[in-house]
Amino acid sequence: MAILSFLQDILSEPAFLMGLIAFIGLIAMRSRWDKVLTGTLGPILGYLMLSAGAGVITANLDPLAKMIETGFNVTGVVPNNEAVTSVAQELLGVETMSILIMGYVFNLLIARFTRFKYIFLTGHHSFFMACLLSAVLGSLNFEGIQMILIGGFILGSWSAISPAIGQKYTLQVTDGDEIAMGHFGSLGYYLSAFIGKYVGKNSKSTEDFEVPEQFGFLRNTTISTALTMVIFYLGAAVAAGPEFVSSLSGETNPYVYALLCGLTFAVGVTIVYNGVRLILADLIPAFEGIATKIIPNSVPAVDCAVFFPFAPTAVILGFISSFIGGVIGMLALGAIGGVVIIPGLVPHFFCGATAGVYGNSTGGVRGATIGAFVNGLLLAFIPAFLLPVLGELGFSNTTFGDVDFGVIGIVLGNLGTWFGQVGIYIILALIAVSLLFPSLGKNKSTAINNVEMED
């Protein structure tokens, strides 16, 4: 009984579960003993780091929400993938990690046996999507192996399908380099490219203009997060008034307290990112190594920042346009009495910049500007529509920020609400048909929409 209890505790602790999976993968690859040792400890320590960072974020979101509510008489929400992930982990930690693993397995199987041969390599976004799926499926009363298999199939499928949807645009961005978009803000980027195609006729490329280098600091996630959150915390503190903030800060000066909260929030985000990277540093190479041996013609789907060098000027223009769209979206939501989604520099920089790069590839300056602006509106409205779906689980102060998370969560959550678990099975059937149908025609061994490869 003591052994069974020990094994149960090991398998019920997400940190040890990740270490066990990494251990199995490294053994299967016949890695040296020292690689097995470090590769097993890395995910365990990474998960503990993630939990610590998530705790910092959660603790600092609460006073911000109270100050915003008091100062502006509104309910304000900061979309933050790391913060909402912390809530999911507290409720469904083992299920989330299991969905993550099954998502990788399904992604490889789909890439091996269908024409969706895209291997999703942006590990932290796979982790965030696994958290979203565990939260939504959990709210629909899925549990255990049923939740893990359904969540893993959806994660693995979208990891292969989302790069394929806009691969023709990605090839335009990269001038034919065979990489794909592996980031769950992809629908916003593809929409930007689609818009650019129609609004950017005869518009010059953004790369015909020079941009000052002093904006380069925004590429540092910690610095940009700190600047953004300090501004919001101080603004919220001024609006709420020193008397109210003092009720939160105790003996600390209210404005010093707001400053520290903003900076500490940025530290929490950095800890979470580093923890996720540490978790996946050995897990991704294990899957990637296996994939290269058994999946011919596969295409790597990589992080959005990989595409920045293809159009550096569009990066800055896209960020500015997206942020303006986010501010307008925030004001519009406030005007109609909705939940105010506060725009942050981090999602608007990385997602807005990428939308700018994609819009520029089809429509030059106008495509980058208008496409990224629309992306900014999406980053305001979609998280607001996602909030009711997640509300039952206690996500009252934050929500997922990137477009794909919102779309997937809204679709699954609403179908589940309207039709119960049957609605989710309908989605699974549609996904299966979508995966298998293209493989019935010609070029069965090539990646769908990877035009250069097919030619």
Automatic annotation (TrEMBL):
The phosphoenolpyruvate-dependent sugar phosphotransferase system (sugar PTS), a major carbohydrate active transport system, catalyzes the phosphorylation of incoming sugar substrates concomitantly with their translocation across the cell membrane. The enzyme II UlaABC PTS system is involved in ascorbate transport. This is Ascorbate-specific PTS system EIIC component. GO terms for cellular component: plasma membrane. The lineage of its organism: Bacteria, Bacillati, Bacillota, Bacilli, Lactobacillales. Homodimer. The keyword Cell membrane applies. GO terms for biological process: phosphoenolpyruvate-dependent sugar phosphotransferase system. It is found in: Cell membrane. Keywords: Cell membrane, Membrane, Phosphotransferase system, Sugar transport, Transmembrane, Transmembrane helix, Transport. Pfam families: EIIC-GAT (PF03611). It comes from Aerococcus viridans. Belongs to the UlaA family. InterPro entries: Ascorbate-PTS_EIIC, PTS_sugar-sp_permease. It is a multi-pass membrane protein. It comes from the Bacteria. The chain crosses the membrane at residues 6-29, 36-57, 91-111, 118-138, 144-161, 223-242, 254-280, 301-324, 330-358, 370-390, 418-437.
